[in-house]
Design a protein that fits this description.
It is a single chain. The chain is 25% helix and 26% strand. It is α/β, with parallel strands linked by helices. It folds into 2 domains: 16-154 and 296-346, Medium-chain alcohol dehydrogenases, catalytic domain (Quinone Oxidoreductase, Chain A, domain 1, Alpha-Beta Complex), CATH 3.90.180; 170-290, 3-Layer(aba) Sandwich (Rossmann fold), CATH 3.40.50.720. The strands form 3 sheets. Strands 3, 5, 6, 7, 8, 15 and 16 form a 7-stranded mixed sheet that branches. The chain has a 6-stranded parallel sheet with strand order 11-10-9-12-13-14. Helix 4 packs across helix 5. The longest helix has 13 residues, at 2-14. The two termini are 33 Å apart.
């Protein structure tokens, strides 16, 4: 009888994983480290044993209930939910119809963004549709691979290749990247997650890069390829630069309009976070384009990016890392701002 009980206990235990779940909206204190059921594998999916998890702004936006959005846009969440999108790990199960990947493959992904639900990244296991996954770059570890997907895909889809047809509801026109070769590109928030990748992509494509960040970021950003650097704590970029071809404002928001005056006629401003932008009329008068898109999961693009990461063309910078159980501390670190690169959670 005791042996039978042990078998049952072990079987039940095998269906449970550790995760970070939340049962209500709020600050970091709502993130609870607890058991959750291992998600059942659906057709077209693989299950990944997670080794590391990238932390991104949508994580704390959703944790807080997307309070910055109009009420009609705020998500109706089926609690409890698991946050997160970016993972790196090893496949431990594949659906019967999956031929592209095998058990034991090391992979990375941005999972199901912009949706959310019970099978997301802040957990020991996550199911991933095969269309959203790619083999992990061989020359970087899981920590750095997990830090890449959302931020690097964002920079890529804004600057190089959109890769989807989902319309940004805040603008009437489809987002179109612009040619970068021989252009002058200013990148605001250049030391952050999206920003440090944008610097490298612009440089790779042959642009002259002006990086805007705090003074402590200068050495790193020049190493990543910035030709010029502006310390925003001492100077306002819009007061000292002009005739720019493209501004990538990785901070975005209501203040993005201040960069319009830096652009030459025919130039473009891409605010990564376009909510609150109110300079459309001024942009039209100046003859410049303002455009944004929303990043979407894309395994094909991650495969391309893995090659750039493997070759060292793109480097991933880690700000800090925390065990999964301490996800609250990671969110508290994010709230302090001035992040250099990415914050990552580790799974033992």
């Amino acid at each position: 009888m005791e042996q039978l009980k042990n078998k049952i206990d072990n079987k039940d235990h095998a269906k449970v994983m550790k995760s970070i779940r939340q049962h209500e909206f709020g600050g970091p204190e709502v993130l609870i480290y607890e058991d959750a059921p291992i998600p059942e594998l659906n057709s077209g999916e693989v299950r990944v044993r997670v080794h590391a998890i990238g932390v991104n702004p949508p994580d704390w936006y959703l944790r807080d209930g997307y309070k910055m959005l109009p009420p009609e846009w705020q998500p109706k969440v089926p609690f409890p939910i698991i946050l997160g999108t970016d993972i790196s790990g090893i496949i431990d199960a594949v659906a019967n119809d999956v031929k592209e990947f095998s058990i034991g493959d090391e992979v990375y992904s941005m999972v199901r963004f912009p949706s959310y639900g019970p099978s997301q990244a802040y957990a020991e296991y996550v199911n991933v549709p095969v269309s959203e996954i790619a083999l992990k770059p061989k020359n970087i570890d899981h920590l750095h691979a997990a830090a890449a997907p959302m931020s690097l895909l964002t920079a890529w889809q804004f600057m190089i290749e959109v890769g989807h047809d989902e319309q940004n509801p805040l603008q009437p026109n489809k987002h179109e990247p612009v040619s970068l070769e021989g252009k002058t590109v200013l990148i605001n928030g250049a030391g952050g997650g999206v920003g440090h990748f944008a610097v490298q992509l612009a440089k790779w494509k042959g642009a002259k890069v002006i990086a805007v960040a705090s003074g402590k970021q200068e050495v790193l950003l020049r190493e990543l390829g910035a030709d010029e650097f502006i310390d925003y704590t001492k100077f306002s970029a819009e007061d000292i630069v002009h005739d720019i071809d493209l501004v990538i404002d990785s901070v975005g928001g209501a203040e993005s309009g201040r960069f319009l005056r830096t652009l030459k006629p025919g130039g473009a401003l891409f605010p990564i976070f376009p909510l609150g932008f109110s300079g459309a009329e001024e942009a039209e008068k100046l003859g410049v384009t303002v455009s944004a898109t929303q990043v979407r999961s894309n395994g094909t693009q991650l495969k391309k990016l893995a090659s750039l990461l493997d070759q060292g063309i793109i480097r991933v910078v880690i700000d800090s890392s925390f065990p999964l159980a301490n996800a609250r501390l990671a969110h508290q670190r994010a709230a302090k701002g001035h992040i250099q690169g990415k914050i990552v959670l580790t799974v033992s």
